[in-house]
Amino acid sequence: MAVPSNQTIPAVAGTSRADVLVAHAPDDAWKRRSCGDGAKGPRLFDWAVAELPAYPDTTPPGWGRWLLARRSLTRNSKGDYEIAYYLCCAPTGTTDEDLIRVAGARWAIEDCFQTAKTEVGLDHYQVRRYDAWYRHITLAMLAHTYLAITAVIAPKALATASSQSRWARSSVSWHT
User: Fold this and answer.
1) How many DSSP H helices and E strands does the chain contain?
2) CB 45 within 8 Å of CB 30
3) pLDDT tens for residues 59-90?
4) pTM of the predicted structure, to 2 decimals
5) How many C-beta atoms lie closer than 10 Å to residue 103's C-beta?
6) Could you tell me the residue range of the domain that residue 140 belongs to?
7) Second label for 2, Cα 20 to 30 Å away, from 49, 69, 79, 167?
């Protein structure tokens, strides 16, 4: 879960802020990893993972807690790195790569919502009644699902059609 820089993190010796903990991370804690492919290829960032103490009242048995930090590769105009913070809770033994991959899944979800807004009007409803809003959202998501499945299947159908002999295609008469 993405959290703000001032998020308090419980520790053995009290609490600390996420940005303070990350500021004290050693240099070798930062690893350059991709959190998934984007429109221009792999989305590379520097990542640091800190294991947090497990508390019986908040951490289920067999699970662990981590603070995950994502740092940009370049500095901003102020000369600082942009850093994002994530609190993670997952089964014990979860690898750093798994935590990074799940944190990177956020872009795919946001891209899906943006596409649904522009393609099927997900955001074109003024909420007046819950049941009407629910119907609109359900129909918009159903339309988006149909379009996504069609986009995956259509290239396969076109490839199959184009692999047929040219004689089968010549029997088609186009209206001009």
Assistant:
1) 4, 7
2) no
3) 788 898 889 999 988 888 888 888 999 999 99
4) 0.66
5) 21
6) 116-162
7) 79
